[in-house]
Amino acid sequence: MPRKKQVTLRTIADEMNLAVHTVSKALRGLPGMSEATRKAVVDRARELGYRTKEQEAGMSAERIPWVHARPRRFAMLLSGDMPFHRQQLEGVQIRLNELGHTVVPVLLPSRLSDIGQLEEWQTKNGIGYMDGLFLTAALPERLEAALLRLPLPKVLLNYPPDLAEVDSIVWDVEYAVHRSMEALHERGHRHVLYVGEIEPLRGFRLRWKAFAAAAKRYGLEEPDPDEHVTGHAADRANWMEKLQFELRSGRFTAVLCAIPGVAEWVFAAAGSLGLDIPGDLSFVGMEHEALPYFADMSRPALYVREAGERAAELMARRIANPTLPYEHVRLKGAFLEGRTIRGIET
Predict the structure, then answer these.
(1) CATH numbers and ranges of domains, the chain
(2) Mind listing the pLDDT tens digit for each residue in 289-315?
(3) What is the tens place of the pLDDT at every residue in 163-191?
(4) φ, ψ of residue 341 in degrees (nearest 5)
(5) Which of 57, 89, 285, 315 has its CA at 20 to 30 Å from residue 266's CA atom?
């Protein structure tokens, strides 16, 4: 891999068969190209170690050192092998590699039931010897609270608990719900079925809270969890029965699928009832990335990998500046129109 000093805009442009001007605009976030082209340019520039003057200045302004005197080693604590965990980890790895450090994924066993077992697990995995910890979303809240008390630099990739003294970053699901409801309301939908668990995670509860707040803002009826599909999806048979009951009730013109990983089940349930999307029901999903089999699905953009990148920056900033106030960063994404929303008359 060429060193940074050997890489120029011309290097990237020639390699990608693009104009230097196009590469420059892509790296500065200027319009004039597809998002796919922009992403390809940015990714390749990062692989080659190229940074613009603006990027250098931005890191300096945020007091984030590019490389410390010694490489540092961090742990990213995971509660399971979920797709969004892999995206988070990828983002953290990309940014830490650029900053000269490494991160090790460490699985937190579900069998841990008390603080004594947690301490034994920490010792076995050398957690106390890490330079810092990244705590991911979906960690059991009781164990998360214990991990937040560890005397190590930490960054939480989740909404922080009340009174938590920790830097945190999250892809803003509350904002995503509000944007989704706005898109549906603008197209005439006043009766939206909410599909998604509302317990036990903070992110689940905040999604439902945002849904209720959006309903109030638009003067709609206050939603009752029992009249929506808010139960646990682990019991798939009963969950599908409840979903099909609500879909065929005729009370709803649209569905907001607020939890990733269940959009395909909603499509399947609608299909089994002979309901067309969007002909009979409009649909918005909240998936962490585009689904190849639902490429035209309307959805809010959720910046999971980008949250991982920003988490790495927050960690570097915290280590270099331990007395700075804690920050909570929310990444807000645009609404991606897709083709699963149909306008109706009100």
Answers:
(1) 4-61 (1.10.260.40), 73-170+304-330 (3.40.50.2300), 173-301 (3.40.50.2300)
(2) 887 778 799 999 999 999 999 999 999
(3) 899 999 999 999 999 999 999 999 999 99
(4) -120, 125
(5) 89
